[in-house]
Amino acid sequence: MRPINGGKNLMTTARPTVLLCDDSRALRMLAASQLEEAGFQVVGEAGNGNEALAQYRTLKPDLVLLDLVMPECDGRQALAAILAEDPQARVVILSSLGAQADIEQCLRNGARSYLQKPIDPEVMERVLREVLA
Amino acid sequence: MAVKFLGQFLLERGLITPQQLLAATEAQRASNPLLGELAVRQGLLTEAQARRINERQRAEDRRFGDIAIELGLLDAREVEALLSAQKAGRKLFGQVLVEQGVLDAETLEQALAEHRAEQQAGNEELAGALAGHRLGALAQEATELCVRLFPRMLGTQCQPAGLVDDALPTATWPYTAHVRISGERSLRVGLSCDRATLQALACAFLRMPSEQCDSELAVDALGEIVNVLMGYVVRNTLPDDADYRATPPDFSRTAASLVDEGALALQLNSPLGQLLLLVGD
Q1: Do the beta carbons of residue B198 and residue B44 sit within 8 Å?
Q2: Is the same domain home to B84 and B163?
């Protein structure tokens, strides 16, 4: 999965940059358009945790939106890897699961927040802006 | 016995043509605006506000009016008035057919009575089959979720049409996605459909025209729909502190092979097409 805009984090805009990581292209399309509409800039998309880590290193986005259930390297592993690389990384989990135990575990492991699918754009915007504040 | 929408029932009996079905569906739809459309029409909400409530409905299993009140966009009296106006203007499908001169009142009455009897028998048969099955409660839960989620997630209805216990040829159900949960309790939930239904589901989910949705994206969207469905099943059936893991959507298995391993297959009828809801453990 390639970075968007050739991997360059555009400095000409004040829009917060987001790396979107989900193995579903359909979900990425949907989320990307909702993020753009909410004033964020999607600078990269990744289809698994390994790609997410590689892109995080290159792009250094303001936020990472990370799916939990993915092939190869899943969201839990990617969360740990990204935080090992950058303990200040702002990672928000995006998952369809959402049981209490799941949410607590992700937050304990360093995720800044947890969003449940299907995405409510308004909730997503509010949560992401809180995480950025 | 498969429970059918009235339009499909009349079509199969040769009482209406496909063109008449489409025209009547269109007219009925126009007479039955969504609450948000009505609120915009009456100047109570802007289009953006109605869209905001609809988006939240996609994510939460709640009614439009409740969300509007919570957000302070409508008060209870306004919601009540909108519901009354919606009910007053609503035309039944059969009524539209009579108004359009497609059926006379007597033929419609007779067809409605037969349809009701068939529906009742089908529902009883389904309830009986599920009650006697170890996966019955789970299948019932997943079916009710589909009925509630389809309007919110896909903008259309669906209704259970019965348990499918005969062969499930892959040619009839070529696209299957399922998600598996493992842990204290293992669960499988899947959907299966044909090509046309797959495309219609994906376009409804992604809100995009058909020409922009390639087949790979359509299959992917089916997996995401199953993901969302599984998320709701997990939240509604597993305890909050349950320890479990989910797999990404699996597209490699056929409906028949999942049923061979003990999954239940329920047919769902929707204006987008026919689907199989697969529920296993």
Answers
A1: no
A2: no
CB atoms within 10 A of CB B150: 23
ipTM (interface predicted TM): 0.77
User: Which of A29, A30, A99 is facing B238, going by the closest CB pair?
Assistant: A99
DSSP B102: S
Name the domain count of chain B.
3
Assess if residue A3 is contained within a domain: no
**Domain, as residue range, for B66:** 33-89
Same-domain pairing of B84 and B96? no
For B227, the closest chain A residue by CA position comes to: A96
Contacts of A95 in chain B (CB under 8 A): 231
Instruction: Please write the tens of the pLDDT for every residue from A12-67.
Output: 558 999 999 999 999 999 899 999 999 999 999 999 999 999 999 999 999 999 99
CA distance B72 to chain A (A): 15
Inter-chain residue contact B217 with A99, CB threshold 8 Å = no
Residue A100 lies in a domain: yes
Sign of the alpha-carbon dihedral angle for A22, A24, A28, A31? negative
Residue A104: closest C-alpha in chain B:
B241
